[in-house]
Amino acid sequence: MALRMWASKSATFLKISSFSRPFATVVKDLKYADSHEWAKVEGSSATVGITDHAQDHLGDVVYVELPEVGTDVTQGNSFGAVESVKATSDINSPVSGKVVEVNEELNDSPALVNSSPYEKGWIIKVQLSNNDEVKSLMDSDSYSKFCDEEDAKH
Amino acid sequence: MITNPSFVIHPPQISSRKSTPSIHFSNFNSSQAIPIAYDSKRRCDVFDMHNELVPYAKAWTWQKSIVEERKKLVDKNEDLCDSVIILQHPSVYTLGIGSSEDHLKGIKNFYRTDRGGEVTYHGPGQLVMYPILNLRYHTMDLHWYLRALEEVVIRVLSSCFTIKAARHEGLTGVWFGDQKVAAIGVRASKWITHHGVSVNVTADLTPFDRIVPCGIQDRQVGSIKELLRQPLSFEECGKLHFTDDQLVNATYESLMKEFSEVFQVQLCMKPRPYYTENNISRLTV
């Protein structure tokens, strides 16, 4: 954490990307939104979380605000939030549908989002209302390129 | 009693206390905060209610309405200019999304909000600033944003009151020794911020004794007024040569100046909104 803060301060001073690692991991076969959430689509349902790029920029996640099971979610709209360092950020759903399960483990271990963003740090599972929407998401290669471009600008 | 006919506050120099930590004054360089899309400064509307007590719920509803309006535009790659609201609240306790109610120590009347950070108190004599910025036009980094808010307050304390405040690594906020003078808690939705920073100017600090402020045990809360009083001699009896109103006004003016500098925005004063018990609507210009 101290190294990340030093890197962030130095990077700001030197006007370079504040990324403390040369690259964030992406997982093939997942779909990605430009707000840095991922979706693992399996038939008519999807598991959703935030990407490695997102968790790295956030820093240590200290709290995850989860929706209620049964809530409707809409692609591009917020369904919850993550908190780190006195700042909360919305999590936007990459898909539309109904929340059928939430990762209760995040209540006790929010840091799973940092340590395992694509697996144990999953956030919600959604019963999709519109499978076609998934086509508007990025694949892993496009998402990696998107992250590089976004980091280069800042 | 006015000591200076030009109404500029020149308080006694704060003497260093033995327990003063190493001063990490500032290595934040605001010239790095260059707006992404504009060569000239980005406009920021100012809603100045710094001498008013605005109910917490109304201010929060108002912020959310501005944020929602802007999020719709952001989805279309458009946006309005930034905004900043500055006001005071009547006495209220608030919690962040993950705050533990244990830190309330039994208090029942409070707001559970959607900001980050733990429990805090707002009340008269405390200036609260709510910047609603689109960080896409600043720096898309919440850590940067928090440091920038701290920078604003550190500069205010220095330039207006010659108080050398500091950051404490890992404890967001602005400190003098072990006293926290400004608390921060924010929310970002599609990179549009709301909530913000509260600065204790002349506020009565005893309501903080009823909570564990920001969840941090073994630290204290301070105010600009108390910091100015501390080094005064026995003969002066801790009596400052300016009124609470003057302190609040001076802090407000300095906050606006430093905010515009740190965030490189051009401030544009707007009429205060008209609100009733049931709704808030903004005057259109």
SS field, number of helical segments of chain A: 5
Question: Termini separation of chain A (Å)?
Answer: 21 Å
The rounded distance between the terminal residues' Cα atoms of chain B is: 39 Å
Helix content of chain B: 10-25%
Sheet bearing the most strands of chain A, described?
A: 6 strands, antiparallel
Note the beta-strand portion of chain B.
Answer: 25-35%
Mean pLDDT reading of chain B = 81
What would you call the shape of chain A?
A: globular
Total strand segments of chain B: 14
Instruction: Enumerate the spans of chain B where pLDDT stays under 50 for 5 or more consecutive residues.
Output: 1-38, 276-285
The parts of chain A where pLDDT drops under 50 for at least 5 residues are 11-20
User: Given the helix and strand composition of chain A, which structural class is it?
Assistant: alpha+beta
Order of helices and strands of chain B: EHEEEEEHEEEEEHHEEE
Which range best describes the helical content of chain A: under 10%, 10-25%, 25-40%, 40-55%, 55-70% or over 70%?
Answer: 25-40%
Strand content of chain A: 25-35%
Shape of chain B: globular
* Count of distinct strands of chain A: 9
Radius of gyration of chain B: 19 Å
Report what the structure shows.
The complex is a heterodimer of chains A (154) and B (285). Chain A is built from five helices and nine strands. Chain A has helices at 2-14, 52-58, 105-108, 112-115, 140-153, and strands at 31-32, 37-42, 45-50, 63-65, 72-73, 78-84, 87-92, 97-102, 124-128. Chain A starts with a helix and ends with a helix. Chain B is of the alpha/beta class and 285 residues long. Chain B has helices spanning 56-75, 142-161, 224-229, 244-262, and strands spanning 42-53, 82-88, 92-95, 111-112, 120-122, 126-132, 166-168, 171-176, 179-189, 192-200, 220-221, 265-270, 274-275, 280-281. Chain B is globular, with a radius of gyration of 19 Å. The termini of chain B are far apart. Mean pLDDT of chain B is 81; it is low at 1-38 and 276-285. The chains are: A alpha+beta (154), B alpha/beta (285). Chain A binds chain B through residues 1-2, 5, 8-9, 12-13, 15, 18, 35, 57-59, 62-63, 65, 76, 78, 81, 83-90, 92, 110, 150, 153-154, and chain B through 27-29, 32, 36, 75, 96-98, 114-117, 139-146, 169-170, 172, 184-190. Strand 7 (87-92) of chain A pairs parallel with strand 9 of chain B, so a sheet runs across the interface.
